[in-house]
Amino acid sequence: MQESIDRNPPRLEDKRIRDILFNTFKNKGFLDGWRQTYPDEIQFIYWSSNELMSASRLDRIYVSNKTYRKCHQWEIIQTPSWTDHSAVSVHYYPHDKVKKGTGQWCFNVTLLKNPEIVTDLKGFVDHSLKVFKRRVKKLESAKSQRKIHSRSQKVVDCFQKMMNELREFPKTKQNENGQNKNKLKEKLLRRIIKMDKEQRTPRRIKKLSDLKRRLGGRRLNTCTWCPLRTSSSLM
């Protein structure tokens, strides 16, 4: 049971059943948090494979008014490749009950499913290790105490630089992948809204299907990044 804004093409629902359902939620003090935050925005998280290539906003998070005031950053996020639709995400902060820790950095292994990223990562590691080994070799050949101290510091600096760049690598790739994914998603949304006024011919449906498949491929390569405090001892 959905409002017309949450389906494409819109489907006529039984008005009596719809009113009963939504009034029940309203009387109990519950609301659709995402729709409350974005009352006029059109977003879809599921595209069917039927002959119409219909779309809808499936996932909902219904919360009370009291809980809604403690929520922020309502958004639609991409999910793992084994799911058939995206999800609704929200940050919930009960007042005076959240203790934020320092956290630890970790490498997101979902990046390794992308062959292009694996190739770039191998090239980066190979180059960094060559530079690091040259520094170590110079340290081993040092004779005086002054040179030992100076070259030891260069080895440490080289290692720290390598680790910092390695930590930035997933973030950079995520941003690149996210930008491409958003462009595809916006293009798909524009096209599916445009088709409201046109007949859904096989050729037009194929265009939607191709865009959906490309967007699905992007979801395979999506990663999550948490900008937490890092420590070189983790690698």
Describe the structure concisely for a colleague.
It comes from Golovinomyces cichoracearum. With 235 residues, the chain is mainly alpha-helical.
Describe it for me?
This protein has six helices and seven strands; from the N terminus they run βαβαβββαββααα. By secondary structure, it is mostly helical. The chain has two domains: 4-92, Endonuclease/exonuclease/phosphatase (Deoxyribonuclease I, Chain A); 109-214, no CATH class. A three-stranded antiparallel beta sheet has the order 1-4-3, with no helix packed on it. The protein has a two-stranded antiparallel sheet with strand order 2-5. A two-stranded antiparallel sheet has the order 6-7. The two termini are 50 Å apart. Residues 219-235 have low confidence and may be disordered.
How would you describe this structure in keywords?
single chain, 235 residues, Deoxyribonuclease I, Chain A, three-stranded antiparallel β-sheet, two-stranded antiparallel sheet, 50% helix, disordered C terminus, Endo/exonu/phosph_ase_sf, Endonuclease/exonuclease/phosphatase domain-containing protein
> Gyration radius, to the nearest Å?
25 Å
Count every beta strand, where a strand is a DSSP E run of 2 or more residues.
Answer: 7
Largest sheet strand order: 1-4-3
Order of helices and strands: EHEHEEEHEEHHH
Distinct helical segment count? 6
**Principal-axis shape:** elongated
Proportion of helical residues: 40-55%
Low-pLDDT residue intervals, each spanning 5 or more residues: 219-235
Which structural category fits the helices and strands?
mainly alpha
Q: What distance separates the N and C termini?
A: 50 Å
Average residue pLDDT: 75
Q: What characterizes the major β-sheet?
A: 3 strands, antiparallel
Strand content: 5-15%
